[in-house]
Every structure is written in structure tokens, then in C-alpha cells.
């Protein structure tokens, strides 16, 4: 039997339980440790509700899973392609569903263009090995362009038509017109961090009621916090948003793409460019990539692995043309 004093509970809770004669965990819990006995609840009735909530979850330990089980789960995850074979290869076949991906880079590096391409790519039919879902685009810096999106949709639609003809697949799996893909993208314009928090809450409801949503883009995450001087408050809010998005991504198998800017950091009296939002943000994001515009050219860009436990350090070049994201 486990003494009640061994539980990670506040001293006042332990004292109340001991004073009521609850000496062991078995005295407090029933149903295999998943439910608090009514007698124990009565003893703690004048404490805040969250105390009982924490008490109920205190013995609910995560169950261990084998590495093989995790491996089998990961290889089942789907990806959203970019229409660039070199970029898809670097991303391990594309942007993975069920995960958060960070795209950092300076202005003009191609972050928004890549996100617009992903919003179209996520809707490509399954007969071509894609996801056939819908997208939500949260626009915090007015970088979203509907005419540019239509241009990418038209070119991507043409590529899909050609692929279906070559492979002799069912053409009816495609919409009648490329503009139908524009209907599959919800655009939400956000102007403050307060609106961003409210938007994340609203997106939860949208995803729960619409299983077609497979991509959420926030372009960019750091922009609503630019004028927030309190670094600690900013970090807490950003991490709160990321944790909500992580839960959303995992529970509903949705890819979340967070766009981030670069900032200057002084290290040993030397100015170094690195992704914004601080070290703690960087620790909780599983995959991070840095985009850049190559010197003396407006079309050629590069994307490099900045952080990943599963991808090797590498970089590739790609082009941004009127058709969207393409190989060099």
C-alpha cells in the first residue's frame, strides 16, 4: 500500500486527508486509482475545484509504448508535397501531418510563397498520392495574396491534369476548375496577439467539426508580438499557443506550419542572425527550416534544415516562378 504522503500534493491537501483518516492511496482512490472516493471528496469539499481535478489525474501515468509501435505510427504519417522534388526530399517527402513545422527566414526569402503553395498542394487528390484536404491560413502581416494564390492554383491544377492523363487515372477526382481549390482555403486576418489567441480557439472548433482540414498556416507567428516589450510574457503566450497547436496537430492529424522571422543576436561581440521568438520556442518545435534568397537573383531560393531529430543537416535550392515552387 502506498502512503498518502508520497503523492506530489500540497501540504494542506495531505494534512486534510490524513486528518480524515486517509492514510494510503487505496483509502482515497477506487476503480484502480482512476476515481476519488466520495468520502475523500467530502473531506476536500472546501478546496478549489482544480485540486480535485489534479488529484484525479495524479495516478493516471502515461502507458509505455515500444519503439516499434512508435516507428509504425510514424511511417503511416502523410505528407503535403511542395511540387519541388528537391524540397520534398529535404523535408522527407513533404510537410508531415500531425506535426508542427517552423519556417524561418528574412523578408523575401520565400516563406509566404511556400505556404501558399502548400495551401494548394494539400488539396491535390489522393489518386496522385496526396492528402486531398483543406487549409486554414492565419494572416498576421497582410502578406496573403489571393491573385497569387489563384496563379499557383492554376499552374498546379495543370500539372495534376497532366499527371492523371499520363498515369491514366480517373479525371473526375479533380475539381472541374482550379478555382475550386480557392474555396478549400479559409483566410483569417489577425491584427493583435489577443486576436491570435481567440483565433486559435476558433480553429479548434473548425477542425473538430471539419475533418477535411489538414493544414494550418500562421504567417507569421512572431509578428503580433513585435511590440511586446515584456519578454517573459511573450514567451509564455507563444508557448501557450504552440502547445495548443501541438495538441490540435496530434489529435486531428493536421500539419501546422509556423512562419517566423530572423532576429539579430550578439554572441561574443558578433552579430548573428537567427530565428526569432527565443530559445525556449526553438526547443519545443520538432522541425525547423531556414529559407533564404540567393544572392543576385530573385527567383532562386534555398531551404536548409535548422533543427530536426530525424533529418540530416542539408540544404537545397528551389525556384519561385509564376507557377509556384519548382526545382532549379
TrEMBL record:
Major subcellular site: nucleus
Domain spans labelled RecA family profile: 76-262
One GO term (biological process): reciprocal meiotic recombination
GO cellular component: Rad51B-Rad51C-Rad51D-XRCC2 complex; Rad51C-XRCC3 complex; replication fork
Pfam families xrefs: Rad51
GO molecular function terms noted in the UniProt entry: ATP binding; ATP-dependent DNA damage sensor activity; crossover junction DNA endonuclease activity; four-way junction DNA binding
Matching SUPFAM superfamilies: P-loop containing nucleoside triphosphate hydrolases (SSF52540)
Keywords from the UniProt entry: ATP-binding, DNA damage, DNA repair, Nucleotide-binding, Nucleus
The keyword DNA damage is assigned to this record: yes
Superkingdom field: Eukaryota
Nucleotide-binding as UniProt keyword: yes
Subcellular location: Nucleus
Cited PANTHER family: DNA REPAIR PROTEIN RAD51 HOMOLOG 3, DNA REPAIR PROTEIN RAD51 HOMOLOG 3 RAD51C
Protein name, entry field: DNA repair protein RAD51 homolog 3
Amino acid at each position: 500500500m502506498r502512503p498518502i504522503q508520497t503523492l506530489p500534493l500540497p501540504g494542506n491537501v495531505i494534512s486534510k486527508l490524513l486528518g480524515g483518516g486517509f492514510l494510503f492511496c487505496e483509502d482515497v482512490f477506487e476503480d484502480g486509482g482512476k476515481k476519488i472516493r466520495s468520502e475523500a471528496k467530502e473531506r476536500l469539499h472546501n478546496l478549489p475545484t482544480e485540486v480535485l481535478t489534479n488529484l484525479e489525474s495524479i495516478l493516471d501515468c502515461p502507458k509505455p509504448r515500444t519503439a516499434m509501435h512508435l516507428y509504425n505510427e510514424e511511417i503511416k504519417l502523410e505528407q503535403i508535397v511542395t511540387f519541388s522534388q528537391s524540397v520534398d526530399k529535404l523535408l522527407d517527402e513533404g510537410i508531415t501531418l500531425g506535426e508542427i513545422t517552423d519556417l524561418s527566414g528574412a523578408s523575401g526569402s520565400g516563406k509566404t510563397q511556400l505556404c501558399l503553395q502548400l495551401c494548394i498542394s494539400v488539396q491535390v487528390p489522393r489518386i496522385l498520392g496526396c492528402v486531398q484536404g483543406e487549409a486554414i491560413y492565419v494572416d498576421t502581416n497582410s502578406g496573403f495574396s489571393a491573385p497569387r494564390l489563384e496563379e499557383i492554383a492554376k499552374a498546379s491544377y495543370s500539372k495534376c491534369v497532366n499527371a492523371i492523363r499520363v498515369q491514366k487515372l480517373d479525371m473526375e477526382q479533380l475539381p472541374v476548375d482550379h478555382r475550386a481549390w480557392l474555396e478549400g482555403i479559409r483566410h483569417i486576418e489577425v491584427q493583435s496577439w489577443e486576436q491570435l489567441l481567440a483565433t486559435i480557439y476558433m480553429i479548434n472548433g473548425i477542425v473538430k467539426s471539419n475533418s477535411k482540414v489538414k493544414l494550418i498556416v500562421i504567417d507569421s507567428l512572431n509578428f503580433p508580438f513585435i511590440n511586446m516589450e515584456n519578454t517573459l510574457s511573450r514567451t509564455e503566450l507563444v508557448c501557450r499557443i504552440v502547445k495548443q497547436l501541438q495538441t490540435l496537430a496530434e489529435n486531428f492529424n493536421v500539419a501546422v506550419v509556423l512562419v517566423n522571422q530572423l532576429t539579430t543576436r550578439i554572441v561574443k561581440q558578433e552579430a548573428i542572425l537567427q530565428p526569432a521568438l527565443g530559445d525556449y520556442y526553438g526547443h519545443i518545435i520538432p522541425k525547423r527550416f531556414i529559407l533564404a534568397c540567393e544572392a543576385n537573383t530573385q527567383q532562386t531560393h534555398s531551404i536548409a534544415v535548422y533543427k530536426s531529430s530525424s533529418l540530416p543537416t542539408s540544404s537545397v535550392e528551389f525556384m519561385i516562378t509564376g507557377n509556384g515552387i519548382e526545382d532549379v
